[in-house]
Amino acid sequence: MKFWNQHKFIIRSIHQRLSRNQFLILSGVLVGLSAGTAAILLKSMVHYIHVLVNNQLEVFNYPYLNLFLPLTGILITVWVVRKFLKGKDGRGVANILLDIAQRSGVIPKFKMYSQVIASAITVGFGGSSGLEGPIAVTGAAIGSNYARTYRLTYRERILLLACGASAGIAAVFNAPITGLMFAVEVILVGVVFSDFIPLIISAVSGALISKIILNDDILFEFRSLKEFDHSNVPYYILLGVFSGLVAVYYSRVSRKIDYIFHHQLKWSPYNKAILGGLIIALLCFIFPPLFGEGYGAVKFLASNNPEGLLKGTFFNIPTENSWMIILFTGLIFLTKVLATSFTLASGGSGGNFAPSLFTGAFMGFFFASLFNKMGFNTLPVNNFTLVGMCGVLSGVMYAPLTGIFLIAEITGGYELMIPLMLVATSSYVIAKVFEPHSMDVKDLIEDKKIFTDNYDENILSLIKIHEILETEYDEISTESKLADLLWVLKNSDHQLIICKDKHQKFAGFIWFEKVKKVLLDTELQHKLTIEELVTKTSVKLKLEDNISEMVGYFDKTDLLYLPVFDDDTFVGVISKTKLLAAYRNKLRLTLS
């Protein structure tokens, strides 16, 4: 604790002596190194858990004992999350976007370590999910809490949040441009952004510390490439279309399985974990490459050595039978989606980044091998394997630039840049035709809980209803006399009088500016009743309504005030004037 306090004192002292831009660059370095260290810790934990488990299995010398390791990992993960994390592990990149949109980029502190623990256990024991999403969440939480510690502004907090996520992704793949693209395409979507230097510095810092510390056998790296042949362009475009369709399949199957486990199965978390673990055991028994992240299997494909995949399978597939190998790889890329979905839905932790790369690699190998076997052309299988990874990632994450630069960086060059661009854009366009939003954020966007590319709507989503709800008002009964209304108006500080019927239900409101000429006419005073002065509306806003919907109601009714209800109970009004003032304040906040 003493060291931490000294550290904060030093940083705050430096903060006072540096300009804003200088301090943000320094902060980018510190956040990047911290997020990169977290990524190294997580990757190393998974690596050594694998080593430890494999050594123990050799002692038992039982060939199929490892099939039940994912079940064990999911059960331990569920227990840890429920026992130590109070049922909250902060899983998923979508949660980062929710924190940006709903909590002004304030991410709870527990997310700085929850995903490291939970995903290390799940993936370390062979769960069929990825570590990149958890690392992005961890890095974002580090950046957000750094900004809170040093009392930085909203805009700076969002920047450092993105720096952390960028550095985490950069550290995993030793790919700083990929980390930068991920932050821009996925994390900062719908956010006005101009401070690129700290983001770049952070990504470089994360990648650099990863390069220095991580061993080569832990890194995800390929070097086997063939020169791009322009005559294969039609096949790359066709691969992109196929990738988009596979991405849609991935998205819909994942969402369906998640819905079944979370909404239809009324079981305890441990029973769900057992069911999911047993299904994964069966899938891994049939298709051993589904065990764990699967990057080892991807390396076999990228080096055009699919025979290595057959090790451990109970199928007696002769290595010279290429048709059987093609069928085997085709079934694997289809069932990987099931393995990942059951891992996550049953209580395991992880993300969809690595599984989408795995699916794309097997799909690309299947695609090229099938065309070669049918005699259409001689396609470079290793190139199509790598480009397929880009295609499915682009279609699943809706991040084509991330996919393009990831494959370009991990292969050590840009020889595949043209096919990568063709496949990534084709896949992205096809996926968007069937699903307007990515699988991770679809529900949140439909509920208008997170940012989209509509900037005005994003600003509105920052406004909370309690900030603009007016709960102090004078009221009068519709059965009261006009003299009572005049007395209320005379002694009131409010422009609006709420009218209720004899059952104390909301009946409408009287706006003084609208009726003052009538009220001041002495001849009309004897003829009018209060009910004739009441402005009525069929629109009833609810506390759970989002602000953009409220703006729509104001436009439709052309009213300056609208009533708000909690169920059927009237709780207050919202004025268009106050709503617009709140919008201006939030706009100023995002630009400050």
List key phrases describing it.
592 residues, mainly alpha, Clc chloride channel, CBS-domain, 3 domains, three-stranded mixed β-sheet, 64% helix, elongated, transmembrane, Chloride channel protein, ClC-type_chloride_channel, chloride channel activity
Walkthrough of the structure:
Its main location: membrane. One of its GO terms (molecular function) is chloride channel activity. There is one protein chain. The chain has helices at 2-17, 20-60, 69-84, 93-102, 114-124, 132-149, 154-173, 176-187, 196-213, 233-264, 269-286, 295-302, 322-345, 353-373, 381-397, 400-410, 417-434, 442-446, 455-461, 465-468, 482-491, 512-519, 522-525, 530-533, 547-557, 576-591, and strands spanning 474-477, 496-500, 506-511, 541-542, 561-566, 569-575. It has 592 residues and is mainly alpha-helical. The protein has three domains: 2-213, Clc chloride channel, CATH 1.10.3080; 230-452, Clc chloride channel, CATH 1.10.3080; 459-591, CBS-domain (Roll), CATH 3.10.580.10. The strands form two sheets. The protein has a three-stranded mixed β-sheet. A three-stranded mixed β-sheet has the order 4-5-6. α2 (20-60) runs parallel beside α7 and α7 packs across α8. The protein is elongated and about 100 Å long. It starts with a helix and ends with a helix. The mean pLDDT is 83.
